Amino acid sequence: MVTRIPLSPPNINPVHDNVDRPLWSVMIPVYNCSQYLVETIESVLRQEFPADRMQIEVVDDASTDADVEDLVKKVGKGRVQYYRQRSNVGSLRNFETCINRAQGKLVHLLHGDDKVKDGFYAKMESLFHSYPAIGAAFCRYCYIDSEGNYLERPSRERDTDGILDDWLMKIGERQRIQYVAIVVRREVYEELGAFYGVTYGEDWEMWVRIARYYQVAYTPIILAEYRKHISSISGQKILDAQNLRDIMKAMELIQHHLPDMYRKKLYNNSLKFYAHYAIRDANEVWMNQHNKKAVRFLMWETLKVYKDPSLIWKCFKLYSKTLINKYDRMFACIV
Question: Which of 115, 215, 255, 278 is the residue whose CA sits 20 to 30 A from 36?
C-alpha cells in the first residue's frame, strides 16, 4: 500500500525521448476548491501560450464538491487537460502525479485556488533564458483573501532581476516562497525527487533542497497571488496546531541541507520566527472566528516550543482578548 505521506522524496521519471515536449507544464493540483478554479485557469489562459509551448492540466485528487471535469471542459474549451485520481491520495501524492505527468521542461505547480498575473510566464521564461544554470526561478507575490481582495506582500529579496546571493542560508532560516510564485526545471525534480515528509512545510523543505544544489533566480515584480482562506489545507491545519508540528518536522529535515557550522543558529532563528508567526495566526483565528478553544490551544502549543518576552507578551494580550469577549457577552445578557 502506498503511504499518503512519503517518508523519502518520491522518484520523478524522466520524459521519454520520443515525446515532443513543450517548454511549459502548468500543472494544477485541485481538491475541493471549485469555487476558485475558474479564476485560476483563466489567469493562465489569458497569457495565450499555444499548446505546443505550454501544457495545461488539472490534476484532481478525487474532489467531491463539484464536477471538476465538466468545469474544466467549460472553462478550458479543449485547451486544458483533465486527470482524476481514482481515489483521494492526499496532497503530496497528487503533487507527485502532477510532476510525473508534466511533459514540459519547466514545471509550475499552480494550486487550484491561486492565480498568476499577466506576464508571469513570459518573465519566468526570460529568467531561465538569462541564467541558464539555474534550477528554479520565482517572483515576488502578494496575498489575497477568499474574495480576491489584496492583503499584503512580502518584502523584496533583491531590487532587480538576478540570481540570489547566499540563498541557501536565507531560505534555510524560514519559508520565503509560495508554490504559485516558483517555477522549477523538471530535470531538477528528476534529480532530487518530489515532496515528502509533511503536508505543511513540505514546499519549504523542497525549496531548501533545490537551493542546496542549484542557483535560484528572482524578479521583484509581483506576478502571482496566493490565496489565504480557512478551507485551504494550511488554513485547516492552523486550527489544531498541526501546522506548527509539521513546520517543526520540516525544520528537522532542512537541517540536513545546511552547512554544519550554521545549523544551530538557523534552527534557533527558525524557532523564533515560526513561534511568533503562530501567534499571528492565532490572532487571525480570533479575529475571523472568535474560536476561543482553538486560540488558547494554539497559544499553549506555541509556548511549548519557544518562549521569549515578546512572545509571552503577545500571548498575554491575545488571552486577554478572549476574556474580554467573554465578559462583554455576559454584560450584554445582563443588560
Answer: 278
- Measured CA to CA, the distance from residue 254 to residue 212 in angstroms comes to 10
Domain that holds residue 269: 234-334
Residue linked to cell 497559544: 299
Q: Is the pTM of this model over 0.85?
A: yes
Residue 289 to residues 113, 173, 175, 230, 322, Cα–Cα distance (Å): 21, 31, 26, 10, 12
Q: Which of 227, 244, 267 is the last residue of a domain?
A: 227
Do 101 and 83 touch, CB atoms closer than 8 A? yes
Answer yes or no: do 136 and 262 share one domain. Answer: no
pLDDT reported for residue 14:
97
Residue 152 CA from chain centroid, whole number: 16
Averaged pLDDT, 134-157: 94
Q: Which of 149-158, 225-234, 288-297 has the highest mean pLDDT?
A: 149-158
CA-to-CA distance for 189 and 318, rounded, in angstroms?
A: 42
pLDDT tens, position by position, 114-142: 999 999 999 999 999 999 999 999 999 99
The residue written with cell numbers 515536449 in the block is 21
- Number of domains into which the chain is organized: 2
Residue 282 pLDDT level (bands cut at 50, 70, 90): confident
